[in-house]
Amino acid sequence: MAWELQIRSLDGSASLGSVAQVQAKLRGVFPKIELFRDASGAEKLAAMEERGIKVPETIREHWLGLKGAFQGVINGEDFTIEFHLGQDETTVAAVGIEVRGGGDPISVIEPLMNVEGWKVVDLQGEPPTRESWKSFGDWRDDGIRQAEDERV
Fold it and tell me: How far, in Å, CA of 122 to CA of 105, rounded?
């Protein structure tokens, strides 16, 4: 289960810029970020067919319309932060952020909050804090404990 955040335009405009512009800003904050484009649906289908896997026609039709999504990853000591820029190269409306693991990702996220023209918010529209990260972690861990207790 991931802690979900989002980068939005500070002025409320519909775009943070092109994929190249957003990637450049991310690289400016995180020089070691791994930026990539996920395989498109057609590329995934070709790889599966090469291995002899037959994909049902409805899934095949859906996948053929999917472009590869632009993404980024930062691996911390005890956490991973994934960035989701979308599929459109010309405009990025917002960047989805998923934080997984433990540790303290706030020190990594804080520099994003200083990028000109950007604001980073959680799903309630509030800036992320150590307290909100801890609250999410407590909620997540409690849910995991409850699920494990139910299996026993």
Answer: 14
- Give residue 18's identity as a one-letter amino acid code: S
Q: Read off the pLDDT of residues 109-125 as tens digits, 9 standing for 90 and up.
A: 999 999 999 999 998 99
Identify the CA nearest to 117 among candidates 27, 33, 34, 22.
Answer: 22
Residue 66 has pLDDT above 90, yes or no: no
pTM for this entry: 0.86
List, as one string, the DSSP characters of 87-117: S-SS--S-EEEEEEESS--HHHHGGGGGSTT
Domain residue limits, the chain: 3-38+69-151
Q: Please state which CATH class domain 3-38+69-151 belongs to.
A: alpha beta
113 closest CA partner among 2, 5, 4, 14: 5
CA distances from 30 to 59, 72, 117 (A): 36, 10, 17
